Amino acid sequence: MILTGRIVKGHKTQYLKSVADACPPDAGFRDRLEYCLLALCKDADIMTPVWLTKNTAEISRFGKTDFLPDQFAEKVAFDRFEIKIDEK
Prior knowledge:
By secondary structure, this protein is an alpha+beta fold. Helices cover 30% and strands 33% of the residues. It has 2 helices and 4 strands, in the order ββααββ. It is globular and about 40 Å long.
């Protein structure tokens, strides 16, 4: 799996990076997604967002989802954090 993360403020991209999972081949989808999400958050120096039911529905339906500022425990300086699965 390759997960691309993008931080957006207004109409401008402030951060864009893709990470590949390094999980064992027998790891499940959820574990691989979590590993990549944590890696993106660490690289972008942001807290891990709260994962909501809407995120699960969007990932399963569209292969992407976004996190709004109210999904972070601390105040953030951007409008949304988007993630997209580029490869399964």
